Amino acid sequence: MTEKHHIYLVPGFFGFVNFGRVVYFGHVRDALERRLGGRCEIHRVMVSPTASLRARTAQLLTAIAQTSPSGPIHLVGHSTGGLDARLLVTPGADLKTDGPALAEIARRVLTVVSISAPHHGTPLASFFTGLLGQKILRLLSLVTVAILRQGRLPLSVLARLGAMVARLGLPGSQTEALLEHIEDELLGRIDAEEREPIARFVREIGSDTGLLPQLTPDGIDLFNATAEDRPGVRYGCVVSRAKRPGILGHLAVGPHVTRQATFLLYRWLHHQPASSTARLPRPTPAQRERLSALLGSPPRPDDNDGVVPTCSQLWGEIIHAANGDHLDLIGHFRDPAASPPHFDWLDTGSGFDRKAFDTLWDAVSAFLDG
Prior knowledge:
Blueprint: E1 5-10, E2 18-19, E3 22-23, H1 26-36, E4 40-44, H2 53-67, E5 73-78, H3 80-89, H4 102-106, E6 109-115, H5 123-128, H6 131-150, H7 155-167, H8 174-188, H9 192-207, H10 211-214, H11 217-226, E7 234-241, H12 247-253, H13 257-274, H14 285-295, E8 317-323, H15 354-369
Parallel strand pairs: 1-4, 1-5, 5-6, 6-7, 7-8
Antiparallel strand pairs: 2-3
């Protein structure tokens, strides 16, 4: 990089910028700044958590226009943020906005990097499109924020969370009432000065869910039919695969109530993307060899990171692949010795650690600098 470049970090499914000391891309930004120094300016983007891809991408466009009137652009999108980045640079895209000229900004983009992105959809989105699924999504987002802030959940919430997971799929309204009670209790335990921004974030997830049907395997099939790669842009992906859950996983977690509860939640989450693999692409021989070298074994069709199927994350050059869950790769893994400490949103037993994080972002930095 010989001139000032601009790197935009785009959050994913129910992503946020920060809630107090919890910063979505905080660890990633630190890693990129250490590696790329003063050669680039790093921007974190705020987009509506579960709004449609068109709406989220329009917000990304506005953020870029307001912060970098000139200079090369690099887009790094986690999860759904990777799809936003692809749509932004799609030739002829129409975002239905009177904002800044899309074509002018798209021509400045040099690279699009996706981290654990659902390029071929995720069956988990199909579950969340129903009324009960949307309420579970609200609670899941709130539980994620709570764990990342505190590293654990209150025992009373853990007990109710376990009961909720056990009741999933059973008829009746008891599950919905339980969801509301858990949400109210979690919000009530948050400090008053931070409660309203988090409550507003949760309400926004419930009020605008246009993204959900677009992330289903059928919905993303239509997206891929129109979102062409832009000539001259380098596309790269980082792929994640969490350890397959089982009884031995509970034994490995040990006698920790919070970790056992989040492992139980992970078992349920892992089952959803693994339940349907018909529309997933199969890696090419070259991709399979690359993934095998990075992951230690080739991915199975039902492998996933707890949110997105592993094979769904393939788009462009494979920059890196890691054994970790959906948020591990952006720094939300267990590392109590770090300052500030890293908290894991789910206990998956995948073994992702500081060394794996540094190796991953070394590879991304080299791709951006190339």
